[in-house]
Amino acid sequence: MALEHAILVSLLEKPGSGYELARRFERSIGYFWTATHQQIYRVLKRMENDGWIDVRDVAQQGRPDKKEYSVAGPGRDALAAWLHAPIEPESVRHDLAVKIRGAAFDDPAALIREVERHRQAHTDRLAHYLSGEVRDFTGPQARAAADPLGPPDPERELQHVVLRGGIAYERMMIAWLDDVLATLARFGAPGR
């Protein structure tokens, strides 16, 4: 996937400035596709030059005008073409898994702290996903926004299924890391 596609999806969900887009990447889409502010601004400029996005200046009180980006017709066409094109399943590149295998040739127990650090990161991310799910999909605010008598909202439902995939992934990683820790513990405490 090119960064352009992630930006198009985000702008179709809600037009915004480059800064707002970068913040969205940090809060949601960035868990699946990361980009720096500089990369986002560089790609926005290229997309503007290619006619994929429209830009309008928005006056701000007491601050310089900001540019607000939205998807133009050619951008929708490019996204549609990408959505309909097949992609190859992603292969996993996992540095920690290689370290774990390599630990057999050193001190396996010395890796415990590193695995615990990874487990904590996945636990924190899972907690973040779960709180987002409550806030956006099951909490009082989400129930008030949902119309149980209205037609299904594909944008909302597809956002939720992606979030559920992230939740399932984090749970799987935590279970695997627990297995790794139990295996490493059989070799003693670090430094022994």
TrEMBL record:
It comes from the Bacteria. It holds the Pfam family Vir_act_alpha_C. InterPro entries: Tscrpt_reg_PadR_C, Tscrpt_reg_PadR_N, WH-like_DNA-bd_sf, WH_DNA-bd_sf. Gene3D superfamilies: 6.10.140.190, Winged helix-like DNA-binding domain superfamily/Winged helix DNA-binding domain. Residues 92-184 form the Transcription regulator PadR C-terminal domain. Residues 7-80 form the Transcription regulator PadR N-terminal domain. This is PadR family transcriptional regulator.
